[in-house]
């Protein structure tokens, strides 16, 4: 559709043939255009064919494409790709290294935390032990003190009881002699004569015995 | 002539060179090939010259394009395909830069020339065939014989495989060429409407708003296409290279 019928299946040779009459045809009626023939010929040559299908330009395009793309490929494969690859590799290495470092530091921190926890637990256990030992000791001491105090009190109570018993016995014993003296005095007052001690004692004893 | 939508694809001689009767002139096409290479290589070279551990913005663009192609190739052709990385990377950067440079008004689009895209496609297919035979010998022909096909169907399947293989360079080159060509022609036509309607006076100026909006939209679309076609070209290259690396397994 873009290609003129004359050159639809054209080889460069056929294009050249097809163009020749076109140029002469244009040049004949318009003499004043003739001065521009050189330029017009270039345009005519290209407009005859849809430009991208103009085979006369193919050789030049192929050559320059080969030169430029070849250079570009060389530059890419020798300079750019190794460089960017190197940059990325360095970065990956660096990141991996940093991650390793971070993991190592984390492990260290974890270990430190674990050691701290362990120390803390040990200290707590030790504290508990000390506290319970102190409590036990204090309790034992208090128990001993109490036992001793109780023993002493018991002793005192026992001493007091014996003394009370002694005093009671003595008092009871004194009661007989007081009664005898009182009876002797009473008898002397009543009868004016002294009764013998033996009689009075017997009388008091018989009265106390009732 | 100014509104001729195909004028932008004209190849003009800048320095006429003729060797053995064949025209090897340095043309505007050649100039923009040089510009493409200079721009792409210059960008990649200067943005990475700092070799920053923490990349600058531009350096990370270069690194992103590198990793983009590297992961594409690794997925497409496996780790054995990575030896083709400079090749695929060069192709992608060349096509992408050529497409993007072509988006600048009055600039020539290298990839809108069928011979350029065809040469690049043949380079890919040539690499596939050369490396395939070099690496696997005649085992490379297993590419055309899929495993597990019944013997009766084999001639049919093999001929289909051969035809599809042969059509690859054509489809690869025409896809890129036609996309760039059609996009630029569309752009030129819509922009031409704006100019010619604008010349008609007040009514024309109002009427020119629509093609102007279309032009803006198509410019955006064309930037997308520029990238997409470079991407597609690179992806297909990876897939074809996979056949060269692993001819049996597909």
TrEMBL record, chain A:
Cellular localisation: Cell inner membrane; Cell membrane
Would I find Flavoprotein among this entry's keywords?
no
Please verify whether the record's keywords include rRNA-binding: no
InterPro entries reported for this sequence? ATP_synth_b/b'su_bac/chlpt (IPR002146), ATP_synthase_B_chain (IPR050059)
Which keywords accompany this UniProt record? ATP synthesis, Cell membrane, CF(0), Coiled coil, Hydrogen ion transport, Ion transport, Membrane, Transmembrane, Transmembrane helix, Transport
The record gives the membrane topology as: Single-pass membrane protein
Residue ranges annotated as transmembrane are 62-81
UniProt-listed Pfam families: ATP-synt_B (PF00430)
> This protein's superkingdom?
Bacteria
Primary role: F(1)F(0) ATP synthase produces ATP from ADP in the presence of a proton or sodium gradient. F-type ATPases consist of two structural domains, F(1) containing the extramembraneous catalytic core and F(0) containing the membrane proton channel, linked together by a central stalk and a peripheral stalk. During catalysis, ATP synthesis in the catalytic domain of F(1) is coupled via a rotary mechanism of the central stalk subunits to proton translocation.
Q: Which HAMAP family match?
A: ATP_synth_b_bprime
Q: Give the record's family classification.
A: Belongs to the ATPase B chain family.
Per UniProt, subunit arrangement is:
F-type ATPases have 2 components, F(1) - the catalytic core - and F(0) - the membrane proton channel. F(1) has five subunits: alpha(3), beta(3), gamma(1), delta(1), epsilon(1). F(0) has three main subunits: a(1), b(2) and c(10-14). The alpha and beta chains form an alternating ring which encloses part of the gamma chain. F(1) is attached to F(0) by a central stalk formed by the gamma and epsilon chains, while a peripheral stalk is formed by the delta and b chains.
Q: Return the protein name.
A: ATP synthase subunit b
Question: What organism is recorded for this protein?
Answer: Shinella pollutisoli
- Organism lineage string: Bacteria, Pseudomonadati, Pseudomonadota, Alphaproteobacteria, Hyphomicrobiales
From TrEMBL, chain B:
Subcellular location per UniProt equals:
Cell membrane; Membrane
Q: Which PROSITE patterns match?
A: ATPASE_A
Swiss-Prot/TrEMBL keywords: ATP synthesis, Cell membrane, CF(0), Hydrogen ion transport, Ion transport, Membrane, Transmembrane, Transmembrane helix, Transport
The record's InterPro entries line, in alphabetical order, gives: ATP_synth_F0_asu, ATP_synth_F0_asu_AS, ATP_synth_F0_asu_bact/mt, F0_ATP_A_sf
Q: What SUPFAM superfamilies does this protein map onto?
A: F1F0 ATP synthase subunit A
Spans traversing the lipid bilayer: 29-48, 84-108, 114-134, 143-167, 187-214, 221-242
The protein's topology relative to the membrane is:
Multi-pass membrane protein
Job of this protein: Key component of the proton channel; it plays a direct role in the translocation of protons across the membrane.
* Entry similarity comment: Belongs to the ATPase A chain family.
Protein name, UniProt field: ATP synthase subunit a
């Amino acid at each position: 559709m873009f290609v003129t019928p004359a050159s639809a299946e054209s080889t460069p040779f056929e294009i050249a043939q097809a163009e020749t009459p076109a140029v002469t045809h244009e040049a004949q009626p318009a003499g004043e255009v003739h001065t521009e023939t050189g330029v017009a010929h270039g345009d005519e040559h290209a407009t005859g064919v849809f430009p991208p299908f103009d085979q006369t330009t193919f050789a030049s395009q192929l050559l320059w494409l080969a030169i430029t793309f070849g250079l570009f490929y060389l530059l890419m494969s020798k300079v750019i790709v190794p460089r960017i690859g190197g940059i990325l590799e360095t970065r990956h290495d660096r990141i991996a290294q940093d991650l390793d470092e971070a993991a190592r530091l984390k492990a260290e921190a974890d270990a430190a935390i674990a050691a701290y926890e362990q120390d803390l637990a040990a200290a707590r256990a030790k504290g508990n032990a000390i506290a319970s030992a102190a409590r036990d000791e204090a309790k034992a001491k208090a128990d001993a003190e109490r036992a001793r105090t109780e023993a002493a009190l018991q002793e005192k109570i026992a001493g007091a009881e014996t003394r009370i018993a002694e005093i009671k016995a003595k008092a009871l014993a004194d009661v007989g002699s007081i009664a005898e003296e009182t009876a002797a005095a009473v008898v002397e007052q009543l009868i004016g004569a002294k009764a013998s001690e033996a009689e009075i004692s017997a009388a008091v004893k018989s009265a106390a015995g009732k | 002539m100014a509104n001729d939508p195909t004028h932008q694809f004209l190849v003009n001689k800048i320095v006429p060179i003729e060797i053995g009767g064949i025209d090897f002139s340095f043309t505007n096409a050649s100039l923009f090939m040089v510009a493409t290479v200079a721009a792409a290589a210059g960008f990649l070279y200067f943005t990475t010259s700092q070799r920053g551990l923490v990349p600058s913005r531009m350096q990370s663009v270069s690194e992103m394009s590198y990793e983009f192609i590297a992961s594409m190739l690794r997925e497409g052709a496996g780790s054995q395909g990575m030896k083709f990385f400079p090749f695929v990377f060069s192709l992608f950067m060349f096509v992408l830069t050529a497409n993007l440079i072509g988006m600048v008004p009055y600039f020539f689009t290298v990839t809108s020339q069928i011979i350029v895209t065809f040469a690049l496609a043949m380079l890919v297919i040539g690499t596939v065939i050369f490396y395939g035979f070099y690496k696997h010998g005649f085992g490379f022909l297993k590419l055309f014989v899929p495993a597990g096909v019944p013997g009766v169907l084999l001639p049919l399947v093999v001929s289909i495989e051969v035809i599809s293989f042969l059509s690859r360079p054509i489809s690869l080159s025409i896809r890129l060429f036609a996309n760039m060509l059609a996009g630029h022609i569309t752009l030129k036509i819509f922009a031409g409407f704006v100019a010619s309607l604008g010349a008609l006076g007040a009514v024309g100026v109002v009427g020119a708003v629509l093609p102007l909006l279309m032009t803006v939209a198509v410019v955006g679309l064309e930037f997308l296409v520029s990238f997409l076609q470079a991407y597609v070209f690179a992806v297909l290259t990876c897939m074809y290279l996979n056949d060269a690396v692993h001819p049996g397994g597909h």
